[in-house]
Design a protein that fits this description.
- The chain is an alpha/beta fold.
- It has two domains: about 10-20 and about 120-235, HAD superfamily/HAD-like (Rossmann fold); about 25-115, no CATH class.
- The chain contains nine helices and seven strands; from the N terminus they run ββαααααβαβαβααββ.
- It has helices at about 25-35, 45-55, 75, 85-95, 105-110, 125-135, 150-155, 165-170, 175-185; strands spanning about 10-15, 20-25, 120, 135-140, 165, 195-200, 215.
- The strands form two sheets. Strands 5-4-1-6-7 form a five-stranded parallel beta sheet, with helices on both faces. A two-stranded antiparallel ribbon has the order 2-3.
- Strand 4 (about 135-140), helix 7 (about 150-155) and strand 5 (about 165) form a beta-alpha-beta unit.
- Helix 1 crosses helix 2 and helix 1 packs across helix 5 (about 105-110).
- The longest helix is centred in the first third of the chain and has 14 residues, at about 45-55.
- The model has no long low-confidence stretch (mean pLDDT about 95).
- Keywords: Hydrolase.
- InterPro entries: HAD-like_sf, HAD-SF_hydro_IA, HAD-SF_hydro_IA_REG-2-like_cap, HAD_sf.
- GO terms for molecular function: hydrolase activity.
Length: about 240
C-alpha cells in the first residue's frame, strides 16, 4: 500500500476482477450453466465436476490452473490480448475437467461473462460513488477477453466510472506500461497524480514503473473482504 499523504491523488485506476468484483464460485457457475442448458445433475455430480473445473483453472477470474497443457501454454500467456484467444484458452482448460455434458463447455464460457456471474465487493459501490462525488477521475483497467461494461451497468456503478480500458480492445495487457499510460491519458492526468488499485502485485503493481502509486488488495471471496477498498478514500480526492 502506498504511504502518500491523504488526498494526494487526483484520480484512481482500478483493476476489475479480484479488486472491484469477484466471479461466482465454481459450484454456482456450473449450476447456472446446467440450468441454462436444461441439464439435470445430482448434487454429487455438481460438486465433483465443479471441483475439477476449479482445479483446471477453467473459470476466468477464479483460481489459476494447477497445470497448463503444453498446447495451451501460448494461448494462456496471451489470453487477454484478444477475445478469440481468451475463449480458446478457457474452453481448452475446461475440457480438462472431462465433463459428461459436451454441450456445456461453451455455455460455461458464456455464463462467466454475464452480470449475474459477478458480485461486487461490499465496499465497491460506496468507494466508486464517493470518488465520483469528489470529482476524482476513475478508470477501470482490466486484463480481460470480453466487455465488462454490462457488469458495471447491471450493478449500478457505470456512472461512477469515467473510462474503461480493456486489454483485448487494445491488444496490450498488463504489465505492459503502454496500457497504464492509456488509462492515465484517458483520465487526463500524469501518472504521479494517480493511484493504481489491484490484487496482482506483478501485473497491477507494474503501474509504479510509469510513476503511479499502487494500493494492493487481496483476491478473496466477497464475504471475506469487506473493506479493503476504503483506504483509497483517504488518498484520493
Amino acid at each position: 500500500m502506498t504511504t502518500a499523504a491523504p488526498g494526494h491523488f487526483k484520480g484512481c485506476i482500478f483493476d476489475f476482477s479480484g479488486t472491484l468484483f469477484r466471479v461466482e464460485p465454481a459450484g454456482r457457475w456450473l449450476r447456472a450453466a446446467l440450468a441454462e442448458a436444461g441439464i439435470s445433475a445430482s448434487e454429487d455430480e455438481i460438486a465433483r465436476y465443479a471441483d475439477r473445473l476449479d482445479r483446471a483453472g477453467a473459470l476466468p477470474g477464479s483460481r489459476s490452473p494447477e497445470f497448463i497443457p503444453p498446447h495451451l501454454e501460448r494461448l494462456w500467456e496471451l489470453r487477454d490480448v484478444d477475445a478469440t484467444r481468451h475463449r480458446a484458452a478457457y474452453v481448452g482448460l475446461a475440457h480438462r475437467a472431462e465433463l459428461p455434458w459436451p454441450e456445456l463447455y461453451d455455455v460455461l464460457y458464456e455464463r462467466h461473462m454475464s452480470p449475474a456471474a459477478w458480485d461486487p465487493y461490499p465496499d465497491t459501490v460506496e468507494v466508486l460513488a464517493t470518488l465520483h462525488e469528489r470529482g476524482a477521475g476513475v478508470a477501470v483497467l482490466s486484463n480481460i477477453g470480453w466487455d465488462l461494461r454490462p457488469v458495471l451497468r447491471a450493478h449500478g456503478v457505470d456512472s461512477f466510472v469515467d473510462s474503461v480500458v480493456l486489454s483485448f480492445e487494445h491488444h496490450i495487457q498488463k504489465p505492459d506500461p503502454r496500457i497504464f499510460r492509456l488509462a492515465c491519458d484517458r483520465l487526463g492526468q500524469s501518472p504521479e497524480n494517480l493511484l493504481m488499485v489491484g490484487d496482482d502485485r506483478r501485473a497491477d503493481g507494474a503501474a509504479t514503473e510509469l510513476g503511479c502509486a499502487f494500493h494492493a488488495v487481496d483476491h478473496l471471496p466477497v464475504d471475506e473482504r469487506p473493506d479493503a477498498l476504503r483506504p483509497v478514500l483517504e488518498l484520493v480526492g
